[in-house]
Amino acid sequence: MERPPLISDVRVRGAMNTHEYILSKQEQWALRQGMSLIGSKDIQGRKMYTRSLNENLFEPLLPAVDRAFREGDGGELAARPGSPPKIHAVHSSAALAVNVFQHWLTVSRVPEIAWACGFCSRGNRGSRGIRFEAKFEISSGFPFRPNVDVVIENVPESRYSVFAVESKFSEAYSQRGHAGVAGKYLALSSLWDGVPRLKRLAASISPGDERFAHLHAGQLIKHILGLRVAFGAGGFRLLYLWYDGFGDEAARHRAEVEEFISVARSDGIKLHALTYQELIIRLAHEFRESTGDYIDYVSNRYL
After folding, report:
1. Domain region containing 226
2. Residue at 7 is within a domain
3. How far is the C-alpha of 22 from the C-alpha of 171, rounded, in Å?
4. What pTM, to 2 d.p., does this model score?
5. Please, what sign has the CA dihedral across residues 218, 240, 124, 297?
6. Closest by alpha carbon to 243, among 280, 215, 277, 212?
7. In total, how many domains does the chain have?
8. What is the mean pLDDT of residues 118-132?
């Protein structure tokens, strides 16, 4: 009698990549909620967009948050002919950031999300506000200012003026690629005072980035430059917060994050990394009793 194949005998083919895993997970979440999703061109394209914004959010946008997104360069809330706004996508990074961070502003408990992100000690009470799509000018000669996804504002007497968050969801695993660092940034020598290793890294991905397949290193570098101009070399901390997954893409992304952080820290930049899954689990362990509906939502959707 022929034995059934052992697991070790089986070659797995066509394994789901990380990008597809995230999209499918969010698609199934929406279906469990009874939502009727639409495509990027309404009846055309994969059905990954909610019909209304509030369907995609734990709670409606606060007026200041709505205004920040409308004034941001990402066009998240902009009407598109025949298409829903980008933030309606169930795999939207902007929606993810709002769903995780805005609630703590709503309930006036900003220090707790700052602690959970690893920015400060548990007893810190210096964090007082949260901004989305915050712009920081690198040079008046550049037409665009980097938009930092989430900024936690601290009281003036705090050691750090702000805690900044660069948020990534499915886009870290897409096949679209990303730009490097334009030569005009490298030409401004004053921008790189005190960060020689970061400058060498920037030069290695200028003008195109052939070094990082998943980490958008050029974008992170611009955020660091903008924050340094705004708050000085030691006036901020930066978190790279991303959604982890399975497969080779996720493993390479993690390795690229570690490589970038090593370079940044060698120049004294206060940069660390955390996954959304780690953050949500930490929040669930610490705050379920006081924020049960919120914890249930983010856990059921993103874990």
Report:
1. 18-302
2. no
3. 10
4. 0.92
5. positive
6. 277
7. 1
8. 95
